[in-house]
């Protein structure tokens, strides 16, 4: 979208597209380099994220676990190459306990009504944990790896 917008903005008065250069999707999603975060800061961030786990994850200390944090904290841990340090079996169990048996979807907590936000982020969290039957997820974009690959292929055609 950004590349398409840039291309439209670069059109000359006669309507011909002028060449534009846009960063590759992969470079735009790179993790901060060690010059941005020290090794100590990365360890502290990993620790903070891991300490959010009870059965599922909570968003801050002394708060209840919540289905949506299976994505928010799961994605952060995945980007930090630390998701394997979490007890994914407990997180999976918590997320599945919030599923509504009658109408489907996931709620914020067990026995709560499902809503679109928690349904989607619950599925996204399960995808990060490689739940069978759910497409792998790109943790930085919160889209499937298949959709990400498609976007990369589309961008390659724009450069041609």
The low-pLDDT segments are 1-28
**Radius of gyration, rounded?**
19 Å
Profile the largest sheet: 2 strands, antiparallel
Order of helices and strands: HHHHHHEEH
Shape: flat
Q: What's the total helix number?
A: 7
Arrangement of strands in the largest sheet: 1-2
- Into which percent range does the helicity of residues fall? 40-55%
The span between the termini is 17 Å
Number of strands: 2
Share of β-strand residues: under 5%
Oligomer: single chain
Mean pLDDT: 84
Category from helices, strands and their pairing: mainly alpha
Task: Give your account of this protein's structure.
- There is one protein chain.
- With 160 residues, the chain is mostly helical.
- 46% of the residues lie in helices and 2% in strands.
- A two-stranded antiparallel sheet has the order 1-2.
- The longest helix has 15 residues, at 145-159.
- It is flat.
- Mean pLDDT is 84; it is low at 1-28.
In short:
The protein has 160 residues and is an all-alpha fold.
What key phrases describe this protein's structure?
160 residues; two-stranded antiparallel sheet
